[in-house]
Design a protein that fits this description.
By secondary structure, the protein is α/β, with parallel strands linked by helices. It has helices at residues 8-18, 30-44, 59-67, 78-89, 112-128, 133-144, 179-186, 188-192, and strands at residues 49-51, 73-75, 93-94, 103-104, 147-152, 171-174, 194-199, 204-206, 216-222. It is built from 8 helices and 9 strands. A hairpin with a 4-residue loop joins strand 7 (194-199) and strand 8 (204-206).
Length: 227
Amino acid sequence: MSGLAIKERSVFDALNEAGLNNKKAVNWTQQDLLDVCQKIRLRSKPIIIAANKADLQSADRVIPRIKNNRPEVIACSAEAESLLRRATKRGILKYLPGDNSFEIKSGNSLSEAQTKALDLVRSLLGRYGSTGVQEAINRVCFGLLKLIVVYPVEDEIKLTDKKGNVLPDARLVPQDSTAKDLARLIHEDLAKGFLYAIDVRTKHRLGAEHKLKNNDVIKIVSATSRG
């Protein structure tokens, strides 16, 4: 199992759920083996199904059949998301990934084809609430993988890095990650010389084993400079 990056805890939990923890493996039936394998897979390799092409007319009939009360299915339109992001980058729209609407910036003259494409996207957002792309990413990161967001900074007063960028990085780390884990993620040298961290909001010093919380803003103080 280790070759598949499956943790021991997942195996034990699956055995308990299948009622096989006190049953010798030589006495397992084929159904027992299938059940425990399925439970291990569900625990160690959770799945989100991104039902793409939700912008097609046929999707209104197909997607409800795919979902069928399955919460892991999310209606998506990668094409619509791509269109919105490209138009935003060009200054045509005001849109943030995951929003349920967009706004055409004043001063932009749209062609007939552009207007038609945006009307289709607007209809999609009305039906599903978003393009589904950001929802799928959020569900994976924060629901299945149980990650949290931490913001490392070099200047705890201005919340910048050495180049002056405000809140320059957002790091996704597993729940129960420590201050030293964050230091190691930024650079191995920071972890080697780790002295303490600073919670920027409270100004408190944090030890190496301090567990981080979602949306923490953290400065790492190290005796070893980054390479």
